[in-house]
Amino acid sequence: MSVHRLTLGDVLDEHRRGRPRGTAVVDGDVRLTHPELGDRVDRLAVALMAAGVGPGERVLWLGQNSFRVLELLLAAGRLGAVFCPANWRQSADELAHVLTDLTPKVVVWEESEAVEKARGQVPLNARWVRSGEEYESFLTGDGRALPGVVSAEVDDAAPVLALYTAAFDGRPNAALLSHAALVAHSMALLHVRQMEDGFTFLACGPLFHVGTMMFTLATFQLGGTLVFTPAYEPVEVCRLIDAEKCTQAFLFGPMIDGLVQANAGGAYDLSSLRFVSHSPEWDAMITVDDSPWCASKMGGYGQTEVGGMLTFLGLGMGGAGYAGRPSPLVHVRLLDADGTEVAPGEVGEICARGHSLFSGYWNRPELNEAKSRGGWHHTGDLGRREPDGTLTFIGPKLRMIKSANENIYPAEVERALKSHPAVADAAVIGVPDERFGQSPKAVVVLAEGASATAEDVIEHVRGEIASYKKPREVEFTDAIPKRGYTPDYDALDERFGGGAYPGA
Amino acid sequence: MSVHRLTLGDVLDEHRRGRPRGTAVVDGDVRLTHPELGDRVDRLAVALMAAGVGPGERVLWLGQNSFRVLELLLAAGRLGAVFCPANWRQSADELAHVLTDLTPKVVVWEESEAVEKARGQVPLNARWVRSGEEYESFLTGDGRALPGVVSAEVDDAAPVLALYTAAFDGRPNAALLSHAALVAHSMALLHVRQMEDGFTFLACGPLFHVGTMMFTLATFQLGGTLVFTPAYEPVEVCRLIDAEKCTQAFLFGPMIDGLVQANAGGAYDLSSLRFVSHSPEWDAMITVDDSPWCASKMGGYGQTEVGGMLTFLGLGMGGAGYAGRPSPLVHVRLLDADGTEVAPGEVGEICARGHSLFSGYWNRPELNEAKSRGGWHHTGDLGRREPDGTLTFIGPKLRMIKSANENIYPAEVERALKSHPAVADAAVIGVPDERFGQSPKAVVVLAEGASATAEDVIEHVRGEIASYKKPREVEFTDAIPKRGYTPDYDALDERFGGGAYPGA
């Protein structure tokens, strides 16, 4: 056993000793101290092992936010296994892709038609455990005596968390993050957010997304308190901030406006929240925080593959580049297509090395080789170094649409469009949208002799992928202009009103 | 090359790009930007390589504080070599031990009689470079053309810094710290000290000691500015804080009093210093800082072998234990002699694992095996976990007394003795006991003008710790013989009848 090892389980075991009375998690009626959480994780690890989960095996969560997401992550970590909280709002077809790709040994799920449909589609040698009573019974061995403790020798370089992201070829890939990467990213957040003893985080964004997950893990690393709520609901979020004296929550623009509206009468005391300045009404309700993270309004550049944030505006405040400077545990190069560093002022691909980087995608050996060529992780995003050394994010190397803070990859929507029998070819661009920043617009070529309305096509996409990715508008045309095999997005933007892309 | 690697050289290369205009070091007339520092380090690495320094070889510094200490550390790191800044104020005999033990390939030195004498005593196949002009000439290849760049593939688990410490057998040992350990320890300091962009550290304590070195390295990690001064000189320290707008300096109690005195007239503006509250005069001169590090008055527990600090009071403020809680990158157990964890409230050896731990002592395979048995680093110090989970440092585990099969650590009993108001100093030894094997005996120095009987003192100890640990006998004396800060137990045994120690 290396004297340098630090797994998530080691962190948990430290908190059991160092914070025996501290509240680790709050979720509805559930309230657990660190030792209570530790005991449940130990039992859960034994139950998972008994269900066939060994080193490298996968455990899947299909449900809303829950403290069980943290329990399952930590229990999988005890076994050297990988835990994946997946987007349960996906279509049955998308969920079936996740099941087929990940082949989990245990699936913990909440009631959903799409989940049940996907389960029927994919024959899996897996134990399905319904969240709630069945989960509690599973955790205690279903009444059977289970072996006492798991004592696997887990290396902290082993992957422990898988998050689906990056639909390069139209299908998402699961980014694998190791214990060491998650711990390193948490340290960067502790530093930039100046998280202190007693930090309480309200996980009101989706836990299958790195944005909420990264602060959940940093709070865990610190030994703070995690408050879970199934999903963002403004009045309930206000109530929880007041009741649990939350220090931070997963919030941005429109979500903050929702809270201001929900708390217009001042029914809830939100002053425990030390957060980002947003509007006079908001600033009067909370305590505006001056940590580099809050003062920079959470600016920076990140992606799931780097554990969350790669650069922080708070580490380059007042600089020319909006993405600031890298986390102290990574380093960044801007490389051209040949792997040569570009000069300051020139645009190159943002490439990175360091402690918080992922361990590749699950089950994608060729993609992994390409993404890590030359010993640098290639983010697939473009950046520029300003004369003062700070970084600016330019945009994805391929296109990406950002709508209501969700990433939409044109390739993924195009794939769904093209699966409609009447569609011969399709491309998707982002058009400026007052409410969501951008919204996706489809440009469609119909098959000879076929016919379909815009409504038909949109409805078809809604059945294929998450609803928020569906085009809001459809324009029919004779041919998609191309650059090689991919659509000529610049030409499409010019002709069909595209714009407002992230980083532009 | 691992995509996760982060050596000190990688950090330097990041700063060259990310902070092209930032001041990296100030030392007298020398003032270098990050790119200038980087260029000098590159040249120095080539010069060291040409002088025979390869992976694993040692480079020794014998001199006062200088920016060259940082340059040599970074250049050695480029080569996978180890840099050691040694205490140049040692005697010729002590310096000869360092030379013999470390067998460096290059020694950079400042004028000193002891150094010259030691050099004469130890025949070494080493290049001796006098700091100053000779060093500058060495750095530029002494006029000869040197190969361009060093491109060694250095693993960040490779040791890069050696600091002499821990004279277990009367001779100090060099603790080896890897790139990864130094980076991890720096991250903990960035977090607890809440170091922000623009941090400027004045290295006015000795760089051969981990206390000054750890903040030097954290400032380097952050890309802040390092101000070097040869040694602590109150007026010069005040001048530098004012001139360079230093954010922090290496200072504690008596050093702070010296600055208050030196700046009594208010000649220097020290308000840039964000530091620990100390006295009304001091607090009026500086900006009192509320970061966990400063608010806790730099409390905690540390040693060179853990990279500096293992625990921080600032991570357990208001807790019962004066040492607070561990750094987020380590975990701690209190173990008995058999490696079993002791219960909360019991005294055990402080043992640790985690990212900032050292890689063993140079050239001490047997000691290393003993210190890392069971996969835990054994600090050689005693601690206790309080009911709230925080930690208390009890004292060094120099001796153990075995009485009626119970382990009794003198440091714990001494601590209880010294909490009696009439006791100025105390030491505890084990004396042979027919019935119990050994029994504890106290040697006590009373405070001036105070009086107490043996019974008083024993009764007091009984109220503080477990009854079996109380001394059976008390002898009063004028002074406790010392070795450094700790009692000279051998002398005490001889004078007061100690013996029958376990394993003796």
How would you summarize what this structure contains?
Chain A has 504 residues and is α/β, with parallel strands linked by helices. Chain A is 32% helix and 26% strand. The longest helix of chain A has 17 residues, at 34-50.
Description:
The structure is a homodimer of 504-residue chains. In chain A, helix 2 (34-50) crosses helix 3 (67-78), helix 7 (179-192) packs across helix 8 and helix 9 packs across helix 10 (253-262). Among the domains of chain A are: 1-21 and 34-156, Rossmann fold; 300-396, Luciferase, domain 3 (Roll); 404-496, ANL, C-terminal domain (GMP Synthetase, Chain A, domain 3), CATH 3.30.300.30. The first copy, chain A, is globular. The first copy, chain A, is built from 16 helices and 27 strands. Chain A has a 5-stranded mixed β-sheet, with helices on both faces. In chain A, strands 4-3-5-6 form a 4-stranded parallel β-sheet, sandwiched between helices. Chain A is an alpha/beta fold and 504 residues long.
